[in-house]
Amino acid sequence: MRLHSWIRRGSTRISPTALYTGQTWQAHGLGHPALAPELGALPGRVAYAVSERAFAPVRWAGGPTLTGFLLARHRVIDALLEDAVASGAVGQVVELAAGLSPRGLRLRERHPEVDYVEVDLPSMAAAKRRALRRAAVDRDHHRVVGADVFGPGLDDVFTSLDARRGVAVLTEGLLNYFPTLDVRRLWSRIATATRDLPRGLYLSDLHLDEHVATPDRVFAAGLGLAVRGGIHFHFPDAPGAESALQAAGFSSATLHRPADHAAHLPDMTAPGAERVRVVEAWT
Ligand SMILES: C[S@@+](CC[C@H](N)C(=O)[O-])C[C@H]1O[C@@H](n2cnc3c(N)ncnc32)[C@H](O)[C@@H]1O
Questions:
Q1: Residue 229 Cα, ligand 1 centroid: separation in angstroms?
Q2: Do 70 and 274 form a contact (C-beta atoms < 8 A)?
């Protein structure tokens, strides 16, 4: 219980990062109008404007930028989820730590038959709920749950799923804020909860230790200080992460490189995109 309260305190400091990623999706045509008022909060706008200016010389020199890996991860997760839904393997989605991501709103516009549950800490969940009300979504099929993904609230989300339909569980922009033990536990909970459904797909971004250059470590240290928790690179390489996913209970696990999707997705070879991998694991 003490460990859980400690994780929870750290988690609330991560929430403002959702304003930054939300600004990124919006600035690159991936946003949704219903989210704009929530993204208008000053801290997110200032952080985004400052970082855009700070990275301008790096971008000009062709160096890696935050935007490079953020867009790569978001687009690859979107594409893998779209394939799983279009093939009929997945009929419901649980997006953990969804923040102000527009993914659920956008996906349900294309696939209104899919049930979507967004989970985040209570204050972020309240902001997302306001946005969904603005978008007048069908609340029986698109809902927001305020819960800590490391706490017991996640079990209620999983037990509420439709046992006849395949599910995709997503984490984006969450794992690297937490130590390896928490990540392994979360993966085991997801694998266990999805095992008895017709199909269980897990999608996430992941940063491997082997792709972290010295400037990235300096940036990560700064971000770690800002969220007062540290940034973690859990696995040395793709085989290490794939075997951890299998040990957690997934029957198959693949780590996608953005460059492998360059033929059908934009932004996959932008500087910075090579720093991220996308996990696709099935139960
Ligand atoms: C970097 S943001 C990513 C948001 C969104 N997935 C995206 O990519 O735009 C991290 C999110 O994780 C949420 N978060 C952090 N710790 C959490 C926890 N223990 N349980 C649920 N959500 C958490 C934060 O509130 C925040 O919305």
A1: 14
A2: no
The CATH number for 189's domain is: 3.40.50.150
- pLDDT tens-digit map of 145-154: 999 999 999 9
Quote the pTM value: 0.92
CB of 175 shorter than 6 A to ligand 1: no
Give the integer Cα–Cα distance in Å for 111 and 106.
Answer: 9
Alpha-carbon distances of 42 from 27, 49, 91, 159, 219, rounded to whole Å: 15, 10, 37, 38, 22
The overall longest dimension of the chain from CA atoms, in Å, is 52
Q: What is the DSSP letter of 275?
A: G
Number of domains in the chain: 1
Shortest-distance Cα residue to atom 25 of ligand 1: 15
Q: Print the domain residue range for 36.
A: 2-282
Residue 101 near ligand 1, beta carbon < 6 Å: yes
